[in-house]
Structures are given as structure tokens and as C-alpha cells.
Design a protein that fits this description.
25% strand; Alpha-Beta Plaits; 4 strands; 99 residues; alpha+beta; elongated
Length: 99
């Protein structure tokens, strides 16, 4: 699994113009089953995405296709981890990890 941390590299008013495209890009990857959770980050990161396990090269290619990255408005940092415990509410994630 991965945590992808998105940080804006351009002023927010420039980023705002590409957010609709970014939202559509997110929807597509949720529909394809790669993304599990996304949302606003804290002070250090503007957005956070939790993904299913996949090849790192595949994830890098997907993140590089984000309109915010393509337009040089943001970049990603990625943390890889193996979830060994999850809450019952994440039962579907438990099943995904088992397969």
C-alpha cells in the first residue's frame, strides 16, 4: 500500500484552475480501484491519497498523469507500507491485502 502526499508548488490561485481536472482524475482512479481514500492534508501536504497495493512503477506513472503534476502545479511524495492491522471498518482493505 502507499500513501501519496501531494504538495502544491504553485500559488493557490493557479492551482484552483486545475482542481476540476484533478478531481476528475481522482474519480477515474477510484473507479478503477487503485485509490481507496483521499482528502485534504495538514500543514505539510495539501492532499493525501491512500492506494491499494500495486507495483511502484505503476503508481509513479499514475501520479505523473495527475493534471496538477502535468501542469507543474504540484508534486507527490510517496510512502510505501504494509498494513498488518486495520480496524473492522476497513474490512474491504483487509480482503484486498489478503489477495
Amino acid at each position: 500500500m502507499y500513501i501519496a502526499l501531494l504538495s502544491y508548488t504553485a500559488p493557490r490561485n493557479e492551482v484552483d484552475y486545475a482542481l476540476a481536472e484533478h478531481a476528475e482524475w481522482l474519480r477515474g482512479h477510484f473507479a478503477r480501484g487503485l485509490f481507496l481514500v483521499s482528502g485534504k492534508g495538514g500543514e505539510d501536504h495539501d492532499q493525501v491519497i491512500l492506494t491499494r497495493p500495486c507495483l511502484r512503477g505503476k503508481l509513479d506513472a499514475v501520479l505523473a498523469s495527475d493534471p496538477l503534476v502535468v501542469q507543474h502545479l504540484a508534486h507527490y511524495s510517496v510512502i510505501e507500507f504494509s498494513a498488518t492491522r486495520t480496524a473492522q471498518e476497513f474490512h474491504a482493505i483487509n480482503e484486498a491485502l489478503a489477495s
